[in-house]
Amino acid sequence: DKLLKYILANDMFIENVGNTPTFDNGRWSNSIDLTITNRSGHKLVSDWRVDERDRLEHSSDHRFITFQSTGSTLLDRQNFRDISKTNWDVFESELAKRMSNHTNAFSIIDSSEKLDVAADLLSS
After folding, report:
1. Cα atoms in the Cβ-side hemisphere of radius 13 Å centred on 40
2. Strand locations in 3-122, DSSP E?
3. Greatest Cα-to-Cα distance within the chain, rounded to the nearest angstrom
4. Single pTM value for the model
5. Residues 106, 98 contacting (CB under 8 angstroms)
6. Which DSSP helix (H) or strand (E) runs through 59?
7. Rounded distance, CA 122 to CA 124, Å?
8. 50-98, pLDDT tens digit by residue?
9. SS3 call for 49
């Protein structure tokens, strides 16, 4: 009930379609695995389904979930960062500096709004 309220309050979508269980251990089956998106992601997801391939193909009680991702992801490929080329000493120093300039924003992050504020401060 709390999860559903959170999803609705934050303008999110449950992409699961149909009633095929996503989990089946032979004794119990249910749709406990959810695909949750925001409004932008919701526009990209289509043909969501539970793949009912033979359980002998994999060793999990959870069934495969598949969907098509359509449209533009709106990502600018020029902004891709290869983290293997990151200078971690410089990164840690810059992160510490930015966080020390805004100690109140990073002391307690207990809501999505505070998380957004902290992320914005680190991104600027």
Report:
1. 4
2. 13-14, 23-24, 29-30, 36-37, 45-51, 64-69
3. 55
4. 0.53
5. no
6. none
7. 6
8. 987 766 666 788 888 999 988 765 555 566 677 888 889 998 998 888 8
9. strand
| Whether the Cβ atoms of residue 39 and residue 11 lie closer than 8 Å to each other | yes
Q: How far is it, in rounded angstroms, from Cα 63 to Cα 57? A: 11
Q: What is the pLDDT of residues 4-32, one digit of tens each?
A: 999 999 999 999 999 999 988 889 999 99
Q: What is the pLDDT of residue 30?
A: 92
Q: Beta strand pairing status for 13-14 and 23-24?
A: unpaired
Residue 25 has, within 13 A of its CA and on its CB side, a CA count of: 3
Residue pair 114/102 in contact (Cβ under 8 Å)? The answer is no
Tokens for 69? 């991702």
Which among 59, 44, 51, 50 has a CA at the least distance from the CA of 13?
A: 44
What pLDDT digit, counting tens, does each position of 28-40 carry?
999 999 999 998 8
